[in-house]
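Section: Multi-chain targets

For targets with more than one molecule, the full set of components is provided together so that the structure can be written out for the assembly as a whole rather than chain by chain. Components appear in the order listed by the source. The example entry contains two components.
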Amino acid sequence: QKEVEQNSGPLSVPEGAIASLNCTYSDRVSQSFFWYRQYSGKSPELIMSIYSNGDKEDGRFTAQLNKASQYVSLLIRDSQPSDSATYLCAVRVFSGGYNKLIFGAGTRLAVHP
Amino acid sequence: KAGVTQTPRYLIKTRGQQVTLSCSPISGHRSVSWYQQTPGQGLQFLFEYFSETQRNKGNFPGRFSGRQFSNSRSEMNVSTLELGDSALYLCASSPRDLNPNTEAFFGQGTRLTVV
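Its structure, encoded as tokens over all components, is:
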């Protein structure tokens, strides 16, 4: 089982709709969770971080974390064509006394006008 | 505040050669991590440095190595290049390595093509 799993997509949503991106992780001691957006040919850009159970909102983005279910999600409200990108879920896990960031394979989001 | 700077942006090398990539983290950040990104494998962790010490290493062969200097700048080296080493190499900068909530910020990456 992969440490961080995401549906590869593509997830296609119409402009103005809510896009829901999901991520599950296997390491129960994971403490912090991040969402990155990566446009084609570009590097990942951090858009959200979440550390405790519940919701965290930032503009059109809402991250949701459920540690008991080992599940983290990202909601994008009022989706725009400019949101079309690959969204990477990342989990910081502890390994050998130090922590490292593990990434999922990413979900490709396509927002069509 | 300047972001993470990676040089060079693009590189073409021949099989068997070696290559050195450079990363300058955000000012004040002391932790640098390296990742390899390929279409088939996604983002794979290579290694992490903090205060000139390698703190963590991913599952890559010994041909991949790195180091960090006292000014936090980091280099990674790949020796005896193989075609499969063609990838986007990304450097991520973080303020501290032992804080689980620390955020990582990526540079633009170095696109390495091995021919």
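The mean pLDDT of chain A is 92.
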